[in-house]
Amino acid sequence: MNDYIIAIDQGTTSTRAIVFDKAGTIVSTGQLTHTQIFPRPGWVEHDPLEIWANTREAIGLALGRANITRHSIAAVGITNQRETTVVWNKNTGIPVCNAIVWQDTRTQPIIDRLAADGGVNRFAAIVGLPLATYFSASKISWILENIEGARQAAEDGDLLFGTVDTWILWNLTGGIHGGVHATDVTNASRTFLLDLKTLTWCQDLLDVFGVPRSMMPEVRSSSEVFGHAEGHSLLRESAITGILGDQQAATFGQAAFSAGEAKNTYGTGNFIIVNTGTEIVNSNNGLITTIGYKLGNAPAHYALEGSIAITGSLVQWLRDNLGLISSTDQIEPLARTVDDNGGAYFVPAFSGLFAPYWRSDARGALVGLTRYVTKAHIARATLESIAYQSREVIDAVNADFRVPLTELKVDGGASSDELLMQFQADILGVPVIRPVVTETTALGAAYAAGLAVGFWSGLDELRDNWREGRRWVPRLDSQERERLLRNWRKAVTKSFDWVDGDVLA
């Protein structure tokens, strides 16, 4: 009996395999973290071979803990950290270098060169995105320009590019022995190389970034048969039938299928997505236009997204770099020992500021310090920074979409932080709602995979699976809310104009 769907959730800090049943309930999980590599200021890398090894092990853990084999799996879904870039030799299966992670800022000179002629929105009408180090295209360019032999190998047709979904799919379906080189529209829309209207690679942009077309994966829908697991995989012969970028997957897992529905995921960064239906909506307020999902031959659904680079990773930074806490779950109890932030505001612009500012010259700033401020106030300011950044993106969503959000669905690891969720509701002035199943990223990939094989009948059945777990309502009066927001916005300006020719990026 094919009673389950397994989702591979390859994130920025870990790889998970999660088994779901027909009710969308988690049956078992396998999870392994991978190494975060910081060779220079502004550089962030992962080892693709470590990620692939962890993927195989996570699958084994999930199947073992559920006490099932591949014969109980109806289909496999994949979701992934999106813009992170892998380039590998198709004949050996070996990456030419470490993966360049979405947070990495080393490609700023490439971005500056291109933005000098037409500004950061030079290509936005085609790709829906501003020129930024965030997206994959400049990362591919950097690899071809800086890794010895890469340019020639690419021109010879020996190199393949993929976001992490493509890397996992290729390896899972056979690798050098006929692996499928493909991606879905949601991940493709984050490369800066996809035409949002035609859903095909834009040759003009491939030429601008110097990327041979032979490197590019085939673009498919988010829910169809991509291929079957091969080789010695514990999932061999299982069909891989769903792929979604992590934030689109979380939106899908929240059952936000219709125009105007939105979610906020609290992970390494924060990502707010609002579904705009089959209409491409261009932002005038610092959001990006992206693809939400595409089911088989049905039309693509588009979305507006506000991407915030540093939220949960700021908590990790307090733990790993400063030793302020010894585990991330200590931050909420520490923050609760004080009643407010003591006047301190933390702007975590470690990779510049993403939405709605798009300021690559910004860097982190902790301001408003006095001798009164303790580590507890800094802990509270850290959590509050997550909520403030989300409020600014929600303001941009309301301005662009003209249908103000009346509530916000939330998910991701930090949505378990009760203090943060209450402050989020307070600073937004609308209810914040967390579902029973908070692993919505993996769930969304499972849903996409299951729809392709008839495991679920359609979107209405998936909507029926969604259950509210907890709701927070605003308690803060409007005058205090505006005072806090005014101070936050002042703090943000202190992070501007930091990077110049004399400062390390």
Kindly describe this structure:
This protein is α+β, with helices and mostly antiparallel strands and 505 residues long. Helices cover 32% and strands 22% of the residues. Strands 17-18-16-15-21-22-23 form a seven-stranded mixed sheet. The protein is globular.
What is the helix tally? 16
Output the structural class.
alpha+beta
Helical proportion? 25-40%
> What can be said about the biggest beta sheet?
7 strands, mixed
Strand content: 15-25%
Supply database-style keywords:
6-stranded mixed sheet, 7-stranded mixed sheet, 505 residues, 22% strand, 23 strands, 32% helix
Please outline what is shown here.
With 505 residues, the protein is α+β, with helices and mostly antiparallel strands. The chain has 16 helices and 23 strands. The chain has helices at residues 48-66, 108-115, 124-127, 136-146, 150-155, 164-172, 185-188, 203-209, 246-253, 312-320, 331-335, 375-401, 418-428, 440-452, 459-465, 478-493, and strands spanning 4-10, 14-20, 26-33, 45-46, 73-80, 86-89, 99-100, 159-162, 182-184, 194-195, 200-201, 218-220, 223-228, 239-245, 262-266, 270-277, 288-293, 301-308, 345-347, 365-367, 408-411, 432-435, 468-472.
SSE inventory with pairings:
Elements: E1 4-10, E2 14-20, E3 26-33, E4 45-46, H1 48-66, E5 73-80, E6 86-89, E7 99-100, H2 108-115, H3 124-127, H4 136-146, H5 150-155, E8 159-162, H6 164-172, E9 182-184, H7 185-188, E10 194-195, E11 200-201, H8 203-209, E12 218-220, E13 223-228, E14 239-245, H9 246-253, E15 262-266, E16 270-277, E17 288-293, E18 301-308, H10 312-320, H11 331-335, E19 345-347, E20 365-367, H12 375-401, E21 408-411, H13 418-428, E22 432-435, H14 440-452, H15 459-465, E23 468-472, H16 478-493
Parallel strand pairs: 1-5, 5-14, 9-12, 15-21, 21-22
Antiparallel strand pairs: 1-2, 2-3, 4-7, 6-8, 10-11, 13-14, 15-16, 16-18, 17-18, 19-20, 22-23
Helix pairs in contact: 9-14, 10-12, 12-13
